[in-house]
Amino acid sequence: MADTTVLLEYVEKLKAQNAAWVADFKDARGEVSVYVPREFVGDACRFLKFEQNFDMLADLCGTDRGPEEDPRFEVLYHLFSTTHHNRIRLKVLLSEDAPNVETVTSIWKTADWHERETYDMFGVIFDGHPDLRRILLPSDFDGHALRKDYPLRGYEPYSLS
Amino acid sequence: MSVLEENLPNQDEFLDQSLESQMTLSMGPQHPSTHGVLRLDLRLDGELVVKAIPDIGYLHTGMEKLFEYKKYQQGIVITDRMDYLNPLGNNLAYVMAAEKLLGLEIPERAQVIRVMFCELQRIASHMVWLGTHALDIGAMSAFFYCFRQREKILNLIEAASGGRMTPSYFRIGGLMMDLPAGFERRCNQFLEDFPAALDMLNTLVTGNTIWQSRTQGIGLISAEEAIDWGLTGPCLRGSGVDLDLRRDNPYTGYETYDFNVCIEQDGDVWARFLVRMRELRESWKIVTQAVARLKPGPIKADAPKVVLPDRDDMRKHMDSLIHHFLIVAEGFNIPEGEVYMPIEGSKGELGVYMKSDGGPKPSRVHVRGPSFINLQALPVMSEGEMVADVVAIIGSLDIVLGEIDR
Amino acid sequence: MGLENTLFESLPDVITVKLDAVVNWARKSSLWPATFGLACCAIEMMNTVSSRNDLSRFGAETFRASPRQADVMIVSGRVSRKMAPVLRRIYDQMPEPKWVISMGACATSGGVFDNYAIVQGVDKIVPVDVYVPGCPPRPEMLVHAIMMLQEKVMKESVKDRRDTYEEESRQSIVPGTLPVTEGTALEEKSKTATSRPYTIPSRHERRRSS
User: Which residues on B lie below 8 Å from A30 (Cβ)?
Assistant: First the structure.
């Protein structure tokens, strides 16, 4: 698989900056994922953007591990650099009773709609987001569609009334 | 903007006025120029747009949820319908994500055919872009010329896969079927005729002074803003950023092809238009190289538990039959893990994040649709412009609602 | 519309049959579609309009953006729950006579997408005249659908009332659900009628009034 030594250096730099930022990291299939505790997401992202030049947030998505797992939700940040073309992934684990994490819209403006979509589909709340409301589902929709305990066909058949 | 600008009062005065003088116009989901079901909430002061708020979700199909309920090979069919102008590109991203999870080696012929079809699909997608963009701005003839070329490409795709717009041609581990006999001759025929068609389109559209005055200086976005808003693809290259994933994060052998990355500096609608017109020619170059490189060989990877065997094989050998049965009935398990596979789709960085928990169905598939991110920058580009310019800007962003709403 | 119908109902058959032929011929030869392209089928619809399969030969010369100027609504693509009220509103804004073609598997029955987000068939929202299967249907199939619709239009009659429900459907209106003008026959009926199941009368069930 592809060589990950360059990416592992970034992990070392993160650890060197503040060891609390890197709770764990995984290196598989040519990609490096760094598990960041949720209090430090903002700081880690700011460090990576302003000092390590990961200037583009390629993707921000959420995952539901299942209703029995704790922590239940994961929020993933895929960072990309337009200058050195490297990619790194940050993961934040959130439990169901406190699905809050700091917003990164002040760091990358593109996170706006990504976070709205993650809120819409999973119910993860981004503290400090300028306008956190539903984006894809109808605004009066009940529930969060991509959670594992939401049925595929929904709850009621469609009726115009 | 034209000569008249000197006669207009200072635009900032308008933007400071109170809300009573503003009108809210809902450029609503059913609209000929919104390229799909997009609703734009425009706050206008006369003709000037003060605020533009896109409202999406009118085509939300729950595809990401559907992926979790379908086996890996069944999910390919759904990817066709996401960005419906670039179905082979979507197929490629999904299939390559699964192959990355599995660690499969794809044979040479399959890789060359994948590149060829991806670039043909890029040409077809840009043809629709140009046709509809021109139609919105008022140049109706370009629409018919563009769709004429697109028909030829759709014929080629249909010859190979059976479907014009929803081919599902790529499979995990290779291709669905080999190319039919005579395909290379037909492809070369198309490639011979295409430069003349491009020149015709340039004569119709690019050299037209009305087109230039309607698209120059409109929808400006600078390079730093573009990166901050996550723009990718021609929208980013139109602002001067030198980024093309085919060259920078290469996949399926793109590093072995010779092509230029088209960049413009201005960051307006005209710049994005020029980038895409040049990309048409570059894609044509890549397809020519790919067709010349076609050699006989296998088109499926050597992984009998993942890739369906050939029909002949299946009928004669018992183990092939068993594999076929198991793959179709139960699917194949992909080991636990997650990948993010970005490709350069026709609209930008199309990324598929796939997470597997060891079963036959993915645990999570997230598609990073470039149009979703590009549309986010619309308010930045269109505030301060006139309503008619908003139509031009939407056209230059090249959005496809299927990808935005998934 | 009401005045024409009462006028035509009183005319003898020999005149109305000829009038039918002329009026229906005029209507079928100039079926102007309203642009209701939603998803992938919309692109195949655009392919049908462009030069290789030319829909203008069949009278669908212009695709009117405004539903007020359109005759037929070609619902091409998947209708999501958020879009469904918009669809109904556009249908209501079209003036009579109007027809609906449901193009593609998603519009007909939900298609590949059997989930929470897609309405399983646009005929749950608007009455459909022609269904076109396919994902997406080839342009030739859409042309065939327009031709089938033209045959259907030829079978209609000027004596059919379009502004009110047929007699049998009127009877099934649940009392109290529609505003009733005082002093009309409907008011008498609604006061005494028992509650019946409410059905949306489908255009397929219209009969000639004679």
Answer: 100
